[in-house]
Amino acid sequence: MHPSSSEALRIRPGQPGDEAALLQICLLTGDGGGDATPLFEDPDLIGLWYAAPYLHLPSTLAFVAEDEAGVAGYIVGAIDSRLYHQAFVREWAPRIARRFPDPPDDRPSRTQDDDYRRRFHHPEFDDPPWFESHPSHLHIDLLPRLQGRGIGRRLMDTFLDALTSAGSGGVHLGVGASNHRARRFYRRYGFTELEPVDETTSGSVSLGLCLPRPSTSPARHAPLS
Q1: What is the Cα–Cα distance from 216 to 69, expressed in whole angstroms?
Q2: Most buried residue, 19, 32, 68, 102, by CB count within 10 Å?
Q3: 24 part of a folded domain
């Protein structure tokens, strides 16, 4: 049986021992869904910001997709983004910042590594008004061997059901404006833009989805076609 067959794959809660796998997946999908390895000297930096903390901090959820070759996808996020950001600033950022010095602002040529290292020394998070209606957030990434096989949908269903059970009223995420494939995926799930979108920019688009009350217990949150 091929290791990435549906029969061999399972979705399970993420554990601290999955951190190395999440760091690798985040790197290999970190450039608009493509491999970000050439962009970093330290391959762990991007995952230490976007993936690993969800295995350790409070108010978080994490699920992984694992086949016979190992963990090849994940979905992570926070039930309450404000609580998560507070814990990140208080606990996670100082822990990671101890690994490297704070890059100076006047360095002639700043690198991606410089930018991420500085983030850990000076963590900042936005607090947009739609946090009230969409307090939760998520990140999802799959290695190529799991893509296009419905695994992303299984991860999303598992995560959204868990958010609904936790009482969250809505979830948001950010996606690159030029990542039209991902935007189509989220749109089919029912996500809509939370703020005006400039289609000419290469920046990020904020998308949101309202969640049903736990008492409705839907099997799925929106039809995908």
Answers
A1: 37
A2: 19
A3: yes
Query: What CATH code is carried by the domain that includes residue 31?
Result: 3.40.630.30
Q: Report residue 165 as tokens.
A: 């059970």
Residues 52 and 21 sit within 8 Å (Cβ to Cβ): no
Name the token pair of 117: 């290292």
Give me the phi and psi of 185, to 5 degrees please: -60, -50
Number of domains forming the structure of the chain: 1
172 is in which domain, residue-wise? 6-216
Contact by Cβ (8 Å): 115, 59: no
Contacts of 198 (CB under 8 A, 6+ apart): 177
C-alpha pair distances (Å), 52 with each of 2, 12, 159, 186: 29, 16, 17, 23
